[in-house]
Amino acid sequence: MVIFDRIRxxxxxxxxxxxVQVIDHAITSTISRTMITHGSxxxxxxxxxxxxxxxxxxxxxxxxxxxxxxxxxxVFVAAAxxxxxxxxxxxxxKPIKKKEGAEAELP
Length: 107
Prior knowledge:
- By secondary structure, the protein is mainly alpha-helical.
- It has helices spanning 2-13, 19-51, 53-85, 89-92.
């Protein structure tokens, strides 16, 4: 969800870029925050895995595997799905509607 929102924001802000460049920019701007978030969460889960005893072992192992797959899918799979669906600027940005009968005002 994070990468899709960043793609939408990048389409608004980067008007001169094409779709591939916008998706690349969205991945680049999101990857550091995603890695820091997942890394700190993974450190806590690994602490549960190694120091939690047999009661928490399999639960922490499942969480660690889920975090690793979550990093991959949230960044790389989401961007590939957006490309596969053929996302365009026109799909994500609402057109500006002009009021009927109103003339353009000069600043």
